[in-house]
Amino acid sequence: xxxxxxxxxxxxxxxxxxxxxxxxxxxxxxxxxxxxxxxxxxxxxxxxxxxxxxxxxxxxxxxxxxxxxxxxxxxxxxxxxxxxxxxxxxxxxxxxxxxxxxxxxxxxxx
Length: 110
Known about the structure:
mainly alpha; 0% strand; globular
């Protein structure tokens, strides 16, 4: 995601004076609710795990999740690039390729 896109998300919020409603608790709730709406796309689909015919709804809900994540990072004073890069580094340590490749085991079971 570019800084320009992040700035647009924040500007959208600020133009409407919504920052006053955006605290970490409520943003975390919103992230969870939007993630649940994303999951709802697949509800009752049985063995059907593909995204065929669901792409537009997935795009919409995923964008909502990402937007709230950007706003959460802003309110908490976190740099998204920094925290994601750090998480990648930690995951590389927990899931070294030679142990984790092709496996779905949790890191403590590798």
